[in-house]
Specification:
By secondary structure, the protein is an alpha/beta fold. The protein is built from six helices and seven strands. The longest helix is centred in the N-terminal third of the chain and has 12 residues. The model has no long low-confidence stretch (mean pLDDT 94).
Length: 185
């Protein structure tokens, strides 16, 4: 059975989720890819505030296409997450509790997730047009010069996701593969 959750997340919400669970996420989500992550971490190094509240934040690794008339956003499919792995531990330790993307994460990210109680959600790659229908509004927050990769606040409603790695480090990419191979024996 799917869970319905709202962002920003609470630590209790994040810690209650388990790898393999389906969720529908509503609320405020921020977009950022690698160039934006680099700039955010530079702000942290300089002791400057981030341009959005990081406590409980969910960051969606997406560079949406331009919105068509009458739409909040264009196609909004996930990008490959490992490109954010150098930066994710810093933001997790500042209070980020959720990440949305596709693909594997580094051991350093998984360890930071365990330390902070964060979760990694998978979104369906190749379904960006369908996922964009869950976005009710999009507001530019910063880094407009990055174009599609600028940081935006999205208001989403029932964005379908799967918990890929939970706050305990359980990883669906590992457990799912093992279960599949076991069935084939």
């Amino acid at each position: 059975m799917a869970k319905y959750i709202t962002a920003p997340l609470t630590k209790e919400q994040a810690r209650s989720l388990r790898a393999g669970e389906s969720v529908y996420l509503s609320g405020s989500v921020y977009t950022a890819r690698d160039a934006a992550h680099k700039r955010l971490c530079e702000l942290v190094e300089q002791g400057k505030p981030l341009p959005f509240p990081i406590e409980g934040a969910v960051i969606y690794y997406v560079g949406p296409s331009p919105a068509r008339p009458g739409q909040a956003i264009g196609s909004a499919g996930p990008t490959t997450s490992y490109r954010m792995d150098a930066y994710a531990p810093t933001l997790l330790r500042l209070g980020e509790l959720g990440m949305i993307g596709k693909g594997k994460r580094s051991p350093a990210v998984v360890e930071a997730m365990r330390e902070t109680g964060a979760v990694y959600f998978g979104a369906i790659g190749g379904a960006g047009a369908l996922l964009s229908q869950c976005v009710k509004s999009a507001q530019l927050i910063c880094y407009e010069d990055l174009g599609a990769e600028a940081v935006r606040r999205l208001e989403v409603e029932n964005l379908p996701l799967t918990v890929v790695i939970d706050s305990q480090g359980n990883n669906l990419y590992e457990t799912g593969r093992a279960a599949y191979l076991e069935q084939r024996r």
